Amino acid sequence: xxxxxxxxxxxxxxxxxxxxxxxxxxxxxxxxxxxxxxxxxxxxxx
Length: 46
Hints:
- There is one protein chain.
- This protein is α+β, with helices and mostly antiparallel strands.
- It has one domain.
- Helix content is 26%, strand content 17%.
- The protein has one helix and two strands, in the order E-H-E.
- It has a two-stranded parallel sheet.
């Protein structure tokens, strides 16, 4: 079982919204992190 957790370079998002699109651009421009869409903040898969 995979456990999802937010970290400095990992964000969990329930759905793709305009705000999340801006975060994607920010991650690409700075941290080169990972955004997992369809995952709740508590790690549950939506």
